[in-house]
Amino acid sequence: MSDIRHSLLRRDALSAAKEVLYHLDIYFSSQLQSAPLPPLVDKGPAELLDEFVFQAPKRLNSLQELQLLEIMCNYFQEQTKDSVRQMIFSSLFSPQGNKADDSRMNLLGKLVSMAVAVCRVPVLECAASWLQRTPVVYCVRLARALVDDYCCLVPGSVQTLKQIFSASPRFCCQFITAVTALYDLSADELIPPLDLLEVVVGWILEDPRLTLITFLNTPIATNLPIGFLELTPLTGLIRWCVKAPLACKQRKKPCLADGHGHAKAPKDPVGPERDSPLLYSQLHLSVLQVLLLLQAHLTEKNLYGRLGLILFDHMVPLVEDVNRLADELNPLNASAEIELSLDRLAQALQVAMASGALLCTRDDLRTLCSRLPHNNLLQLVISGPVQQSPHAALPPGFYPHIHTPPLGYGAVPAHPAAHPGLPTHPGHSFLSGMTFPFRPIR
């Protein structure tokens, strides 16, 4: 490697970076031919990358940096062996915990942004794998760079981002997972931009199964690694749908400054901002539809009752956030938003448990939701025993959605073989004189 380094020092920064990429390709191609397992990057090639690729942008002008990105983009497009391509991408952009990581992440953001712009599918596929095996703290940095480029900086560029759905659905799935980890609606700047929301909702409406691509195409272990993106974006999407009514209401609450330090009342949303509630409503329906699909997939993979794709530990901070937001907002002025948020939470919990995506008991739910404001639908979900068959053992985590009558109700008599007269139908006799303990759902 020392001979290679001396020859690279005699080159200009751009050609040196291109030459390192060439040597790395030869190195990994030979390693993969001689070893059955994917090789690790030796210290020598890693040092060449840090010195001649990731430090190169400091010595390149804007045009030369663009040329470097084009060289990389073309290399991944022309490399026909996916295993080599993935290894090169991983060796280039996997965080090393050194001073070159900032340069590494900046260059990655620009490369993936270029791949979106010119629809370089091999680069997008490599980026999808990178997002799957890289700590989430780096994944959200890439997500933020792409959101800035396509949803914030250049008006109309979001159309380019929308079009990659058909080119690389796998990248779209990982991108959604990353942006839901980034935008958690905990502050105004962490509410997803409207353009981004439109992209995500549009993709999922076109094919709700998009959110399951990573899960369906990944060898699954029951113990998932901590600190990485989840197998699906479902938890993050549920967070968006449940918190959105309260977070957006709170966003409008403070008065705005008029430029002279004087307060003025906030204006009603106009134009596209009015579409935000509809988009969240469409997204919520799509998430419920995906959850209904999951039971068959979990059963097919023999993971039903063994793998919770929506972790109960992740529901705890969501419920706490909902409770905090409901307390901070004036219930008299935000009763509709609070009710909508709790309705969505109840529906998500019910369907997730019924499909086996969320593994917990109703006692866990009662404890978790005990401090939330009263909500009729949520009460139905967390209260009362569940009717279970004594003849068949149900898998762990199974949550039948049929409730027996609450305590104090009489049992419903069995239907007779024939109905002698409809006015005296015995199946409704237990309702007479009983008071239903829950308020009717509005």
Order of helices and strands: HHHHHHHHHHHHHEEHHHHH
**Shape annotation:** elongated
The overall strand count is 2
In quaternary terms, these chains amount to: single chain
Strand content: under 5%
Q: What is the tally of helical segments?
A: 18
> What is the helix content?
55-70%
Instruction: Quickly give the structural class.
Output: mainly alpha
**What is the first-to-last residue Cα distance?**
73 Å
Low-confidence stretches: 254-272, 384-394, 396-442
Residue-averaged pLDDT, rounded? 81
Number of domains: 3
Which strand order does the major sheet show? 1-2
Radius of gyration: 27 Å
Largest sheet: 2 strands, antiparallel
Briefly characterize the structure.
A two-stranded antiparallel sheet has the order 1-2. Helix 2 packs across helix 5.
Can you tell me about this structure?
- The chain folds into 3 domains: 1-93, no CATH class; 99-231, no CATH class; 233-252 and 275-385, no CATH class.
- The chain is built from 18 helices and 2 strands.
- It has helices at 2-9, 13-34, 43-54, 62-78, 82-93, 101-118, 121-133, 136-153, 158-162, 169-182, 194-206, 213-216, 234-252, 276-300, 312-328, 335-354, 362-369, 376-382, and strands at residues 256-257, 263-264.
- A hairpin with a 5-residue loop joins strand 1 (256-257) and strand 2.
- Residues 254-272, 384-394 and 396-442 have low confidence and may be disordered.
- It holds the Pfam family INTS15.
- This is Integrator complex subunit 15.
Protein traits:
mainly alpha; 18 helices; disordered C terminus; INTS15; Integrator complex subunit 15
